[in-house]
Amino acid sequence: MSDPRTILHMIEPNKHMSPFDVNMAADAGYKTIVPYTAVTLDEVRPLVQDAIFSRPPDYGVRTGFFFGGKDAILALDMMKAAKEALVPPFQLSTFADPAGSFTTAAAMVACVEKVLKLKMGRSLKGTKIAIFGATGVVGFASSIISALEGAHVQLVAHRGVDRVIKAAAVSKERFGVDLEPVAGETPEQKNEIIANAEVIYAAAAAGVQVVSKEDKAIAKKLLVVADVNAVPPPGVEGMDLFMNGEQLPHCEALGVGPLAIGDIKYKTESGLFKQMINATEAQHYDFRDAFTLARELIA
């Protein structure tokens, strides 16, 4: 008998499944890919059980569920519901990467970690990191990854501090990390944050500049700045798309640009899909697993 076909069920709570993720899964080697859109959390369990009970138990490892969307917590909740729906010996693998954010965040943090290590002889542990765009999915995942590595992480609020307070509370409850919500709504508040930061993650919406030439002039403690925004203007003024540890103009800090991050992000998402395909037992991947692989790819 030939090997059982690899099947990936792609779960999307919104109207459209991301073509990016569909392409990534196909190029990684999945033979059958089925997107499901407008899926609610309570629908995950019956979908998973339809998938596992329609194949022999030893085919389960050839079956995967991917969770997309734009809500990190919902994607994690859907992944949890999928795992809880499994009935041994029936199994399948799961992978959450909403809006590509988990693999993007993992790549960004891994790139920054490498620059800190190679250029400054430092690790993330004890490093003061300020995250702009902290309530977005990339900001959320990168904050937790960094805090789990021992960094002191500030979630910067540019429009009402309540949202970052809530994000910090959720992160503490679910992952046991302590994040500091800080207001960055006024120029004075933002200046203080930038003046004391050692690392900045620019993870705001595409086309939004969060660090200007003037901001960099006051950033005397700044070591590394990472920017995931490839849409002009850059999130950090003067950031080159391919920058990967080179000095930024108008300051002493080193830059990590969106295409340097994107290269590792692409390899990380593809790599996790390939690991699922080639595994001999069920796998379950979230941003922590993405960070582990991103680190290996950079090394």
What does this structure look like?
The protein has 299 residues and is of the alpha/beta class. The protein contains ten helices and twelve strands. A seven-stranded mixed β-sheet has the order 7-6-5-8-9-11-10, sandwiched between helices. Strands 2-1-3-4-12 form a five-stranded parallel β-sheet, sandwiched between helices. The relative contact order is 0.14.
Structural class: alpha/beta
Helix content estimate: 40-55%
Largest sheet: 7 strands, mixed
| First-to-last CA distance | 40 Å
| Overall strand count | 12
Globally, the shape reads elongated
Strand order of the largest sheet: 7-6-5-8-9-11-10
Strand content is 15-25%
Radius of gyration: 20 Å
Mean pLDDT: 96
Number of helices: 10
Catalogue the unreliable spans: none
Topology order in helix (H) and strand (E) letters: EHEHEHEHEHEHEHEHEEEHEH
Main features:
299 residues, 10 helices, 42% helix
Summary, kept brief:
This protein has 299 residues and is α/β, with parallel strands linked by helices.
Please specify the SSE layout and strand pairing.
Blueprint: E1 7-11, H1 19-28, E2 32-36, H2 44-53, E3 63-67, H3 72-84, E4 93-96, H4 101-120, E5 128-132, H5 137-148, E6 152-157, H6 162-175, E7 179-183, H7 187-196, E8 199-202, H8 213-217, E9 224-227, E10 244-247, E11 254-256, H9 258-278, E12 284-285, H10 287-298
Parallel strand pairs: 1-2, 1-3, 3-4, 4-12, 5-6, 5-8, 6-7, 8-9, 9-11
Antiparallel strand pairs: 10-11
Helix pairs in contact: 1-9, 4-5, 4-9, 4-10, 9-10
